[in-house]
Design brief:
By secondary structure, this protein is mostly helical. About 80% of the residues lie in helices and about 0% in strands.
């Protein structure tokens, strides 16, 4: 259970190397834009899941009556 979702058994050295490669590929100016886009995507996903949970709760409440 000490593993991150998809990272497996990556150590500190491997994570540093991956970070350097990402920095070289995208550059310093593109990384904040990339993270902003990922953040918006995660927020939209959470909002969608919350909306589905609300719909399911409403359906359960209407079935009980």
């Amino acid at each position: 259970m000490n593993q991150l979702l998809f990272l497996g058994n990556l150590g500190t050295g491997e994570i540093v190397i991956i970070a350097i490669v990402v920095l070289l590929l995208f550059g310093g100016k593109k990384i904040p834009e990339l993270m902003k886009g990922i953040g918006k995507g995660v927020k939209n996903f959470k909002d969608g899941v919350k909306g589905l949970e609300d719909d399911i709760k409403l359906d359960d409440d209407s079935d009980k009556k």
